[in-house]
Amino acid sequence: MQITTQSNTYQVRKEKNNSTKTESLFLNDNLIESDIQKISEQEFHILRNNISYRVEVLKADYEAKEFELRINGNIHTLKAKDRMDLLLESLGMENAASTKVTDLKAPMPGLVLDVLIEEGATVEKGTPLMILEAMKMENVLKAAGEGVIKNIPINKGQNVEKGAVLIEFE
User: Could you say which DSSP state residue 109 is in?
Assistant: First the structure.
């Protein structure tokens, strides 16, 4: 895995030792010896080379592989690339994972509770577009990629069938 900060790029790998049931972490092929204690879901205490670090996860976008951490009071932004990202990049296909959408179809029959965007709006992957109620559950439908809203052929309060076009993109 490759981790990029504001100023550096690091190669990180984890190795399992099946006989001792332990894991080792390597940074640029150097073994990292540290003690990591989880304080809470978002906070960690790390002791490395007799130096104490308090790490707080401020933002974690696992889909985009982008993270914002506060380490001893200083904020750091990290971007991670896994093996597949690096392979696509080496083949010149780093944008293959980004998708431009053509339309949003109803994943199931339901009732349109709310339309959260307007025609002409520019959306990115993950942008909430509408709320569809199905089987007494509210489902937030999000953009699968980037695009501009061309047409919204349905209305709030309308019942839709599975596969019905809810939003058309340019």
Answer: S
Distance CA 159, CA 49 (A): 62
Residues 143, 104 contacting (CB under 8 angstroms): yes
Q: Which CATH number fits domain 103-169: 1.10.10.60, 3.30.70.260, 3.90.1180.10, 2.40.50.100?
A: 2.40.50.100
Minimum mean pLDDT range among 13-22, 44-53, 131-140, 154-163: 13-22
DSSP per position, 32-48: E--EEEE-SSSEEEEEE
Rounded-to-10 torsion of CA 147, 152, 155, 161: -90
CB under 8 Å, gap of 24 or more: what pairs does 119-128 form? 119/149, 119/150, 119/151, 119/152, 120/148, 120/149, 121/148, 121/149, 122/146, 122/147, 122/148, 122/149, 123/147, 123/148, 123/149, 125/63, 125/98, 125/99, 126/63
| Contact of 141 with 132, CB cutoff 8 Å | yes
Domain with CATH 2.40.50.100 in the chain: 103-169
The confidence band for 88, taking pLDDT boundaries of 50, 70 and 90, is confident
Residue 93 clears pLDDT 70, i.e. is over it: no
Is the pTM for the entire model greater than 0.85? no
Tokens 């349109």, residue? 112
